[in-house]
Amino acid sequence: LRSWAAIGLGIAARQDPADLDSREALRAGLGREKNREAKGAYLLALGIARDMPSLKTLERALVDGSSYEIRSAAAMGLGMLEDEKATDALRARLEKDHCEYTRAAIAEAIGFVGDHTDNTRLAESYQSMKVFENQRQAALALGLHGQRNSVEELLHVVGDEERPTLERAAAIDALQIVLGKKPSLTLSRLLR
User: Fold this and answer.
1) In the prediction, which pLDDT does 146 show?
2) b/e per residue 2-26 (b: at least 16 CB within 10 A)
3) What DSSP string describes 52-109?
4) For 119-174, what is each residue's pLDDT tens digit?
5) How far apart are CA 49 and CA 181, in angstroms?
């Protein structure tokens, strides 16, 4: 129940930038929370709320979180802040976390807020993933960018018959995002 309440407060605060009470309640709740799942919800909710005073807390949780769930939630929270300092923290941590699940969450968070300079790092992250769900998250990050070199990387994966079917499927999902964002693009135009 605390997890849902935290997310609800985060949404309320995002909708009302003047809602300082919800942000303070989230910070206080995180400080008291012992449950790992609920801690993750608080971290995510602080990002949803765009609570910039929590930037350092989110950064610490990304680096020092006791589990991949905590670090992944911190990554998503940082992405939700939609702030350049938060994005820099994500970029700095992308290849350093020992857990592929956390790296996939970091890649996805960068995909939400990064820019064209992230395409190479996201493509490399995608290529390093071994677990299908993580490949899908990293492919999503590339798709969210919608840059031409992202599309080219995804097309390369789709066309590589040596790659596992699920990996190619993840790239197709990401291409659907790109093409959905830019309806004027078609695969035939991209393949020219």
Assistant:
1) 59
2) ebebbbebbebbbeeeeeeebbebb
3) GGGHHHHHHHHHH-SSHHHHHHHHHHHHHH--HHHHHHHHHHTTT-S-HHHHHHHHHH
4) 788 888 888 888 878 887 887 777 776 566 677 777 888 888 888 787 787 778 77
5) 25
